[in-house]
Amino acid sequence: MADLEKLFDNNRKWASRKLAEDPTFFQELAAQQAPQYLWIGCSDSRVPANQILGLAPGEVFVHRNVANLAHNSDMNFLSVLQYAVEVLKVEHVIVCGHYGCGGVRAASDNRSLGLIDNWLRNIKDTYTRHREELEQLDGEARADRLCELNVLAQVHRVCHTTIVQNAWAAGRALSVHGLIYSLKDGLLHDLALQVNRQDQLEEIYRMDMAIGS
After folding, report:
1. Which of 42, 96, 147, 159 is the catalytic position?
2. How far apart (Å, rounded) are the C-alpha atoms in residues 31 and 58?
3. Which residue of the set 63, 92, 98, 177 is catalytic?
4. 35 neighbors 61 (Cβ within 8 angstroms)
5. Alpha-carbon distance 200 to 160, whole Å?
6. Which of 73, 90, 158, 164 has its CA at 20 to 30 Å from residue 195's CA atom?
7. What is the spatial distance between Cα 49 and Cα 134, in angstroms, rounded to a whole number?
8. Per-residue DSSP letters for 75-136?
9. Is 101 marked active-site?
10. Contact partners, residue 169, CB within 8 Å, separation at least 6
11. What pTM did the predictor assign?
12. What would the pLDDT profile of 146-171 be if each residue is shown by its tens digit?
């Protein structure tokens, strides 16, 4: 435990600062959480959701994984999405990637890294769909564009879930957004993709959701 003493010390100082600022902070935080946002981001330690958004604890519900992927077979992601949408009633789902993503870079070449190759495979699918555009770019520009395209692909994957489409069918105001973060200047960039209704999806992905069936 001695190796973690710095972390415990940091925690005690942080808790003391919060209490000095607001004596009821932890009491109110323990009572409930009512975030408006679900953040689906990368596990990269340089991309912390609350700090980037300038939001306090309790204001954003967070799911993170390598390369901010929305796998339709990932029960962790689906459980978080369902809880956020159906229980917490979030109004916005944010898929946020970042430039310089190691997972995206790993998916863009042919080196085998082991188990994670399976996790990253749908980024290769995205590369294949956009090969002509990507191969006109070089080096960092190509990697950055693939990071953006990966975010856009995951926004659509989120929207293809029964969880999101059930919410829309029930008349819920729910928007799914694609953003990307720059490590170089700390700024978020809007990728100009916002989906908030089923008819924005390609027809093959629109499910006939029978409410109450």
Report:
1. 42
2. 10
3. 98
4. yes
5. 11
6. 73
7. 28
8. HHHHHHHHIIIIIS--SEEEEEEETT-HHHHHHTS----STHHHHTHHHHHHHHHTHHHHTT
9. yes
10. 198, 209, 211
11. 0.92
12. 999 999 999 999 999 999 999 999 99
| Rounded Cα gap, residues 74 and 96, in angstroms | 18
Q: What is the DSSP letter of 16?
A: H
Q: For 9-66, what is each residue's pLDDT tens digit? A: 999 999 999 999 999 999 988 887 889 999 999 999 999 999 999 999 999 999 999 9
Residue 139 CA to chain centroid, in angstroms? 25
Residues making up the chain, counted from first to last = 213
Residue 206 is among the residues annotated as catalytic for this protein: no
Is 98 tagged catalytic?
yes
> Element (H or E) spanning 190, and its range?
strand 188-195
Task: Please indicate whether residue 22 is annotated as part of the active site.
Answer: no
Tokens of 24: 């009821």
